[in-house]
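Intended use. Records such as the PPM-type phosphatase domain-containing protein entry shown here are meant for training and evaluating sequence-to-structure methods. They are not intended to support clinical decisions.
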Amino acid sequence: MKIADPLALKAKLPKSIIVFAASQLNGDRETQEDFFENYNDECFVLADGVGGIPNGEIAAKIAVETAIWGYKLIRQRSFYWQDKKLFMKRIFRSTNIALWQKKRETGFEEGLATTLEVLVVGDRIFWLGHVGDSSSWLLHNDTFTKLTIDDADTHGYLTKVVGTKRYGLIPQYITGLFLPGDTMVIVSDGVTSALDKESIKKIIRDSGNTTESITKTVLELLKKAEDQGGTDNMTAIIVKRIATR
């Protein structure tokens, strides 16, 4: 099946639109080591700098900015655009190398590392890349599904991150339908350490169809996580496809 370039889709009258909102809290941390960015309402990226390694906030920022840069550059090459799994792998490879090379600079000799979520949405389909213990979820009708598997052991220690090894990083790759009425949720582990699946679902299923209502839902989700004892940096992104006709 041939997937149309989202740039071309912009020229047509859409049957649906993407509405999103995002926000974050520091918890009890002095620095915010989560970083997120959206490009053109079609690529959404979240990184959470790894605790225990210096410069987590810088690692997260570099990762997100490199992933967005990679998305914009790599998608211009039709070979990669037609093979989304390879496309996503290239984005993660570029991001990993950027962090790996940063350790050559003065002050970064101990290295940098981060988790990374990259969500790309097309006309009816999503493509998702994942490394680490942030997580991505899909609400379809009333079914709420965790799409990603945490790269962590039974004690909660990360087993895979971006930036610590020069070669061999392979992200989890997930793809599926993203239809009008569906909602994607991307959160850092600061949220999921405080809230379980049902708690998140209960909040987001009534998110509404406007930027204002979805923003309110994001803030409610973060406040709930904080009230439930969340102390880590917390970031939440909600992406919803809304039917227009």
